[in-house]
Structure formats: C-alpha cells, structure tokens
Design brief:
seven-stranded antiparallel sheet; alpha+beta
C-alpha cells in the first residue's frame, strides 16, 4: 500500500460538551511515484542504447584493426617469402656458376688447326664427326647430357669445322642480314689475334635466338653456335679462350 500523509487530529466538541476527534484524511502520491518510475525507465533505456551503440562501434573498430593488421602481416609474409626466394635463386645461381670451375679444355683435330678452348666442367661433350677420314668435324656441348642431335634440340654450343673457305661460309650468312622476319646482326671481332664474324639474332634455318661465330682457320672455317641467349655469358667466355694453329 502507498504511504499516506496524516494531518494532525483536531478536537471538536459535541452538543453535550464532549470532545469528538475529527477523522484523518490521506493525501494520494501515486501519480508522483508513477512519473518517477517512468523517468527512471526512460533514463535506463537511453543509457542502454548508448552503451550498445558504443559497444558496437568498439567491436567494429576492433574488427577493422584486426583486418588491417592481418593485411599488413600478409604483406610482410609475402615480402619475406619473395626475398627468401630471390636469395635462394641467387645462391643457386652462384652455386651452379662455381660448379663450372675448373674449366675443361677442348682440343680439335691436329690437321684442322688443333682448335682449342675452355668450357664448363659441368658440360658434356659429344663428337658426332671426328673428320678422321676428312670432311667436316662436328662436336656438341651441353650441360649434364647431350640430347639427341636435331634442328629442334637446344644446344649450349655446336661446333663445326667446315672444309670450306671463310669467305664462302660468311657469304652464306650475309643473305640473312637482310631478312626482316628473322633479323640477324653481325659484329667484327678478334679471335686468336685474327678477324672473325659474330652473328646475333635468329639462327638461320631455326627458330632459336642465339649467336654464331665464324673463325678462319687456314683454308677451313670453324663455326661455333649457341642456340639460346641463356648461354650468352658462357659462349663469350669460351670465345675469349679460343686458340688454334695458324
């Protein structure tokens, strides 16, 4: 029951002169209490909504932060992996390069000027024609093993010593210098203190991009060729070591 306010009793005399006590009246306060409860409820709801809003914002910001951190971590992981791959590739290339030493020395037929040069020890040599009965000399060099000989097989170095004059062989290459579909460039170089022609571009009658070196050896012509520019560095090193009897 809600509390009531009590007013002090007042004394009233009856006709007989006897005092009579006046009844006490209660003042209702229910309306005030209801208003207070409503205000408290509104305040609680408002505070709850504000709290929920802030909690939601906090969770959203936390998720965005985690996503950003994960993205940064992912980028760092990719960068580290790429750096490790680059380092591994560099170390592997250095290892393969070091494995080529000490170089081997090739010697050609004595009757053909005894052409000789150095080549990586990791390469294998296959002599297809030894010119023991005259004719042309043919040898092939390739890393690990020499694949079956064909026009489609990529070789690190192909060597031919032709029983033809240098001028005749060079003239055959001249016509390829003007071929727009398979361009070939020529450069005059010095080999064993003598003149030689170095051709770079599409190797004649093939689809290979490589290099061809023509060297005059007495009345014959040595043709050294690489079928891929991947071997350019090795090919140029080989060129620098070429020697023969003039």
């Amino acid at each position: 029951m809600p509390p009531v306010q009590v007013q002090p009793a007042q004394s009233v005399q009856t006709a007989s002169g006897m005092p009579m006590v006046q009844q006490v009246q209660a003042a209702p306060v229910q309306k005030t209490k209801d208003m207070t409860s409503l205000i408290k409820t509104i305040v609680i709801i408002a505070v709850s909504l504000i709290a929920v809003t802030f909690i939601g914002l906090f969770i959203m910001m936390l998720m965005q932060r985690n996503e950003a951190q994960n993205d940064v971590d992912g980028q760092i992981s990719v960068a580290v992996a790429e750096a490790l791959d680059d380092q591994a590739a560099k170390l592997e290339a250095e290892y393969l390069e070091n494995m080529k030493y000490p170089y081997k020395t090739f010697f050609g037929p004595v009757d053909y000027g005894e052409l000789n040069f150095e080549y990586p020890k990791t390469w294998n040599l296959y002599i297809a024609k030894d010119a023991s009965n005259g004719g042309d000399y043919e040898a092939y060099f390739n890393p690990d093993q020499v694949e079956p000989i064909s026009n489609e097989t990529v070789m690190a170095v192909r060597l031919s010593i032709l029983d033809d004059a240098f001028e005749k062989v060079a003239a055959e290459y001249e016509r390829y210098l003007e071929d727009e579909e398979a361009p070939l460039k020529v450069e005059a170089v010095t080999v064993n203190d003598g003149p030689a022609n170095l051709y770079t571009g599409v190797v004649p009658e093939t689809d290979f991009s490589g290099m061809v070196l023509l060297v005059k050896i007495r009345d014959k012509t040595a043709v050294l060729r690489t079928d891929s520019m991947l071997f350019e560095s090795d090919f140029r090193k080989l060129m620098d070591t070429i020697k023969f009897n003039t």
